[in-house]
Specification:
Layout (H helix, E strand, L loop, with lengths): L16 E2 L2 E2 L10 H10 L44 E3 L2 E3 L2 H15 L3 E13 L2 E2 L5 E2 L2 E11 L5 E5 L9 H14 L3 E3 L1
Parallel strand pairs: 9-10
Antiparallel strand pairs: 1-2, 3-4, 5-8, 6-7, 8-9
Amino acid sequence: MAKRQQWPMVVPAGTTMVGTARVRDESRPTMTTAQRRIYEKTGVPPQSSALDDASDPTDPFDPSLIRQPVSIGGAPKKAPKYRNTKCEHDGIKFDSEKERSRWFHLIQLKAAGRIRDLELQVPFVLTERKKRDDGKWERASKYVADFVYVDVETGNKVVEDVKSVATRKNRTYVQKRKQMLAVHNITIKEV
């Protein structure tokens, strides 16, 4: 492996630009990746002797230099479309607190003997997987019900979905609700 040779170009001290290229300031040591990420997240410069240099005209504690915190993962998380809060209970993940609350209520009904065969997140196939004319496969479409159980009093199978006023109007959901009625002859109970 050949050794790199020093670049013969000499740049006078204090030069900031050469043509369109920016000259790197070598007076300060660069931060490590960890220090840079901490600095980007908190706005607080890392504790190092290079930043404590008395000849440095910039004050690292000047409030105008402190940036707003930035999440390390990039852009800040966007709020959910329908303002739901995902949650978990006993290892079961729920899409909303309302859905988790309904789960607790259904468990109580099951304990009281009013319902049986309680299931969570049950998939129903609406259209089967099919091969197109060009040889490519079209995926099957399915609907995943939040809860499925049998009402002991009537003996009917109940398919339940927890919906807010806004999500009941979702076009995709409305279409799948209609397909459930057409394909499986099941009316979805919206809670």
